[in-house]
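Entry 12.
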Amino acid sequence: MRRFLSGLIADYQPDVVVTESIAKGCLKHPRTKVLIQALQEEAAQHELLDVSVPLPRAYPSKYERAVALAERHAAVAGYLPKRRPMFYENTPRGYLLFDAVALAEAALAGPSKVG
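Predicted 3D structure (tokens):
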């Protein structure tokens, strides 16, 4: 896995890596948390800035968040799934793109203001 991540970093040469915070409150599966941790460690090995932010949960569902992001970012609008999945269906992989856009927005917004 590390070789794969290192290859991605070498190919894309990012300046910043934005990852979801895996601190308390993260709803990701434990295996996914291991992958996120590996990416954070690989970014540190390559001396990249790793910005870790919680995934914003300002919408009642992933579908509503994707629709709102598609309205704000025309470049990703074409990737919006054609319909909302039924509750018994697996989440379409296309929502991962919208998770990434939500994380990028959160990183650009900076730390949340409390109080």
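Annotation: DSSP finds four helices and two strands in the chain. The longest strand covers residues 16-20.
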